[in-house]
Design brief:
- With 369 residues, this protein is of the alpha/beta class.
- The protein has a single domain, classed as 3-Layer(aba) Sandwich (Rossmann fold), CATH 3.40.50.1820.
- It is 30% helix and 17% strand.
């Protein structure tokens, strides 16, 4: 498995803000290798039934993002644990949901105590982060403190979702699946949340960071139920990102920068889908010089954002700290989901772009700050 080092600036940022933002963290370790699940090609119902999978009609095309173009049938959700400790301001549930053979998904639903049918914010953080933060009382208290339910999960080919995969698989060499399958997951999760009847599904937002931001953009482009979209340094423009990002493992870099691989992910590039998002409110926050999302890719993503989108440019991670600490990172998203929120209107880019200068000197060697 790959290992990643946290730069000092990112470590400082993690100590200052309510929601950890680093795309690094420690690499989640897959469990002992299980049987390889080959999902790169759509499976026919006949083949799946012969293999003995529970979802006998499973058929999925990762390049087709709308759920109606795929055949995913959810099994009955299973409750794994429920924390309803008296005195805590939230109730936390962990459910196991499944609609794809060999890919059970841990879904955390955290509701503010005493709030009837709260609005919902989905949280999708960047690879390689797993579900640990969703078990933390501090995170649960911060995300539900303003009366919103928090729903957390991780992307395909990540963390605990690697358990039944080949040990050779990772997020990058399986990028078409990691993106396409998770966009389908978002839609299936929204279906499940709507079926519960204890959440306000007319006010749904999504916060995505890094690879989670990429997936959030793709999901918002095909699902109008997402009313507000907030993305932090979303990955995008795959030719630039895969060639230059420091987070791409060296053992993958040569394989995924080949023309045939880039062709497979071309139709899943957030750069193409960003102008098509259906969310009524959109914000993109970019952190320059972070080493993970190249500055050139960030600029192109900002140029592709909808003409109503708010664009926040931070010169470095230190410039983000004052704007994100003590729960302020969530204020914009929750404000957009209030009953009296006004939809964003198209403005000149200079009016909707906010620049926060770098607070640390640039590294003369050009390495990660």
């Amino acid at each position: 498995m790959h290992s990643f080092m946290k730069p000092l600036a990112v470590c400082f940022l993690l100590s200052q803000i309510a929601l950890p933002l680093s795309v690094l963290g420690q690499q989640s370790q897959a469990a002992a290798p299980g049987p390889e699940v080959k999902t790169a090609e759509p499976k026919s119902s006949e083949k799946t039934a012969k293999e003995g999978h529970p979802a006998a009609t499973y058929q999925e095309d990762f390049a087709a993002l709308p759920l109606e173009k795929n055949h995913l049938t959810a099994e009955i959700p299973v409750i794994g644990e429920r924390d309803d400790t008296p005195g805590k301001p939230f109730i936390r549930e962990r459910w196991q949901v499944m609609w794809r053979p060999g890919d059970p998904l841990d879904l955390y639903i955290v509701k503010p105590r005493g709030v009837e049918k709260p609005p919902v914010i989905l949280y999708l953080y960047s690879y390689p982060q797993d579900t640990e933060r969703f078990t933390q009382d501090y995170w649960c208290g911060q995300t539900t403190g303003m009366g919103f339910a928090a729903v957390g999960f991780v992307s395909a080919v990540t963390g605990h979702r690697l358990e039944y995969r080949s040990p050779k698989d990772d997020f990058f060499n399986q990028l078409p699946e990691a993106l396409g399958a998770t966009v389908h997951d978002v839609q299936m999760i929204l279906n499940y949340l709507a079926s519960r009847n204890d959440l306000d599904m007319s006010r749904v937002g999504i916060f995505g960071q890094g690879s989670g931001g990429s997936i959030a953009i793709l999901a918002s482009a095909v699902d109008p139920r997402i009313k507000a979209l907030d993305v932090l340094t979303p990955w995008g423009d795959w030719p630039i990102f895969l060639a230059q990002s420091h987070i791409v493992p060296q053992e993958d870099r040569q394989q995924i920068n080949k023309p045939e691989f880039l062709e497979k992910v071309a139709g899943l590039d957030p750069l193409q889908w960003f102008p098509k998002v259906k969310a009524q409110s959109v914000r993109i926050q970019d952190v320059r010089r972070d080493g993970y999302t190249p500055d050139a890719a960030q600029a192109l993503m900002e140029a592709a954002a909808p003409e109503t989108a708010e664009i926040d440019q931070f010169g470095d991670t230190a410039a983000l700290v004052p704007m994100a600490g003590n729960g302020r990172l969530l204020e914009w998203l929750t404000s957009q989901l209030r009953p009296n929120a006004k939809p964003q209107v198209a403005l000149d880019k200079s009016q909707r772009t906010h620049v926060f200068p770098a607070r640390m000197p640039a590294d003369p060697l050009g390495t990660t700050p």
